[in-house]
Specification:
about 60 residues; mainly alpha; 1 helix; about 60% helix; about 0% strand
Length: about 60
Amino acid sequence: MMTSLGPYASFIVTSYAAAALVVAILIGWIGHDYRNQTQRLRELEERGITRRSGRSATDMR
């Protein structure tokens, strides 16, 4: 496989691997932030502060 990519095979493979790593990190970051924001909304609702939309933080779409 490496020979079919020519003399720049290592650069091409490294570039694709770096791009895949960045995408994976972004997906993880978004998931982590979603959990944090949902927890913050739950804490606010427990204190009596409600959302303008009227939905609960624990309501699933």
